[in-house]
Structures are given as C-alpha cells and as structure tokens.
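User: Hi! I'm working on a homework problem where we have to compare a predicted structure to a textbook description. Could you give me the structure for the chain below?
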Amino acid sequence: MDSDKSIYFQNTTTNPLRQLRRKLSKTKENETNFKKSKLENTSTIQQNLPTSLEVGSDRLKDDFFNVSCEQLARNLLGKILVRNLGDVILKGRIVETECYPGGEDKASHSFNGKITARNKPMFMKPGTCYVYLTYGMYHCFNISCQGEGAAVLIRALEPIKGIDRMLENRLNFQTRKTSEPKKKQRQIHSRDLCNGPGKLCVALQVDTAEVNEKDICSWNGVYIEEDVQGREVNDPRVYIKEDIQGREVNDPIVYMEKDRQGHKVNDPRVYIKEDIQGQEVNDPIIVASTRIGIDSYGEPWTKKLWRFYIYGNRCVSKFDRTREKEIIDQT
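Assistant: Happy to help. Predicted structure tokens:
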C-alpha cells in the first residue's frame, strides 16, 4: 500500500488520543477520496466507450426471426447487418440469402434432424448465429429460424459503413493465404468486398470462436437492424407529402437540399421511406433462384428456388439472368 494512502503512523511521541483521532480522520478522508476516484473512473470509462456499443431502437427483435425459413430469407433482404468490433462498427445491407430448412433437404447440415456439435445452433432458438468453417479456411454466417434445424445463410452484403476496415480485413486475409505482399495483390472493388458468404465473414471478422451460438437479438457484437435511411429512389418523380422543411410538396419532382443524413443532394435522387400514400418506395424486386454449390445433392434439392437476392444490386454473388427475365416479363 502507498505511504500517502496508509492510515498507520510511525510517530510514537504523539498523544494516543490525538493519534486515534488522526487515524479516524485519515480513514474518512481515504474513503471520500476513494469514492470520488471511483466515480471519476466510472465517468471516464463511460466516456471512452465506443459509440458502436450504442444499439438503437431499430434493432430487430425475436419475433422477426421466429418465422419460416423461406420467409426469413426474403424478409432479411434490405436489412442492415451490423458488426460491432468495439473500436469500429461495420455495416452492410443484406442483398442475398439462401434457405436451408432442414428436414428432408439433403443440402442442409441438419438433414433428417441430425444434431452434431457443429450444427447445434440450427436447433437453438430463432435468431441464433450459426457460423461454420468450410474448405478449411472460410467461415459462413447463418441465422436460425422457425423449424427444427432451419437456418438462413447470408450470402452477400452491400457495404455501407466501415468499408476501409472491411478492405483491410480482406487484404490481410489475402496476405495470409497467398503470402504475397499487399502491393502485389489485386485491388478489391467495394462491390466485391462482401459478395459471397466467405468474403463477408472475412470482411466483418465473423468466425466460430466469437460469433457462433450468439443470440443475434441480445448480443451486441452482431445484430440486424432496419434500414432507417430508407431506400434510394432512382426515379426522381416521387410523390412525398413533405419536404425536409416540413412543407407540402405538390410538384412530384422533388429537389431536396439535404437528405435524411444531412448530406447535400446535388441531383434529384432523394432518400425517403414512404410515398404520399404511406407505401414504401421502390420496394426491391426479389429474384428467387436455385442455391449455389449443392449440385452433389441432386434433384429435387438442386432445383429448389431457395436462393433470394435483390434484383439489380451489383453486390450479389451470382446473377440468374434467366430468372430475372422471367420476373421482369411478369411485372
């Protein structure tokens, strides 16, 4: 114990009663200083907490994940996957998913209800993270849903926040894999950062050690939230009720000075969530296609349209032009 914090004194010439009073006074002073120091330290810790630890009200709750596998796979499209690394927060819009409902589906790890140490999260409560290793080096990120052994694979993201860290993670992983210096490696375009299940796990630092079996509804390391920024409106002729100043807009062509984030908008594209009738604007067209990498399981599983992606998004891992044409011809 430091001498300035000690309540013991070596001066034997002091009157015993006076010595006792000094001890009591010193003890009280130490207790006061300790409490003050504790409060200051607590305040400092709270101030130093990364803002990424703050979870907003837009985080999706248990009910969102407690649906069928196919419904969750569709519903996840357009939502924001958030990875909280403590010092930085990474975000990506989910643009591609795959459905693995278990049961008779031979492509599911939980085929015929078989439970193993690896696939155990598929049988846990809806909203449980299931991360597994494939090809001995790549991780894949899934979310459990309603149904025994059912889960949705997140196949691709559109990076929207923390892109520099994502790129750094990808390049560092590439260096370990190829043993080549970063300068000799090919550059990675932003649309290619997370356009595959293995790529997005590398970019967002998702692995079995930290993320597997975590509850995505309560753990702050990974969670899903609504896209509160709204969708990008590519057609400037959009009917909205009020502009950014709260005035009614009668002209369907709207030129806003700033979008919802406060950034200046130089062209007529605006970010809004609802049109004048309260309906979502530019609700994404969802393409249903066959799953990737399961050819060995044969039909009918290879023919199931259980892969879903947002039509026209450049961050999708693989486009199905035939299915896209069929869908567009029907609209």
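For your comparison, note the following. The beta strands are 80-84, 89-100, 129-134, 138-144, 151-161, 222-225, 231-232, 271-272, 286-289, 307-310. The chain has a mean pLDDT of 78. Good luck with the assignment!
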